[in-house]
User: What shape does this take?
Amino acid sequence: MARGNQRDKAREKNLKAQASQKKANTKTGSEMQRDREALAAKMREKQAAADAKKAAEAAAAGKK
Assistant: This one.
């Protein structure tokens, strides 16, 4: 049964690969909160820039 052996070898290889993957989050609560706040600030900046661009385009369209 060569295929059975091949299947077992593939299963062992897959289990070994899964075991080596990072599974748990290693950040503490304060680190996660700080990252979340930094991301929120970045998104607010992007939104403000998009709003400014829309306002500029609307003003330019109004002048035509």
Remarks:
- The chain has a mean pLDDT of 89.
- The chain is about 85% helix and 0% strand.
- Residues 30-64 form one domain.
